[in-house]
Amino acid sequence: MLQRIQTVFLLLAAAAMLVASVTTLATFFYDGERVVFEAMGIYLDGNLSDSTWGLFAVGAVSSVIALFTVFLYRNRMLQIRLSIFNIVLMVGFYLYFGFIIFRLYPVENLQFEKVGIGIIMPIIAIILTVLAIRKIGADEALVRSLERLR
User: What is the pLDDT of residues 15-35, one digit of tens each?
Assistant: First the structure.
């Protein structure tokens, strides 16, 4: 289980989504006030302005699915399906992030200061999950070719 490279990819993807769930996603200025966007909430000048617990939940669920997928090494097709579902969740993380930004703050008054490390981590997790899917598929192809030889 832990000897396979796809296990390492899935564990790193889980860690990346966990980091995305607990760190700052973006910092920007809205009408001269500093706004910090985190997965748990939007902070306006240090005070909680809006709660975004749904974004945290999507990141946490994605992390748990990646960890759970590691232990399904005997059922490779289920591993692939759960990994694809996890990629859909990670894309949903970005879509929900964009929805929250554009719903709460009009774009014409928005000035980004910096992008946090948390917004980059789902991209890294998606890449790691795709690499894991490729390795799982290669294992499945190897097992099927060996079964044909019997």
Answer: 999 999 999 999 888 778 888
Q: Please calculate the CA angle 112-116-119 and round it to the nearest 5 degrees.
A: 100
CA distances from 74 to 77, 81, 89, 92, 95 (A): 9, 14, 24, 28, 33
Percent of residues in the chain assigned helix, strand, coil, to nearest 5 = 65, 20, 15
Domain extent listing, the chain: 5-143
Question: E-assigned strands of 2-87?
Answer: 24-30, 33-38, 41-44, 47-51
Mean pLDDT, the chain, integer? 89
Instruction: Report the pLDDT averaged over residues 30-59.
Output: 87
Half-sphere exposure of 125 toward its Cβ, with a 13 Å CA cutoff? 35
**Is the distance from CB of 67 to CB of 47 less than 8 angstroms?**
no
Residue pLDDT, tens place only, 56-81: 999 999 999 999 999 998 899 999 99
Q: What is the separation, in whole angstroms, between the first and last Cα of the chain?
A: 25
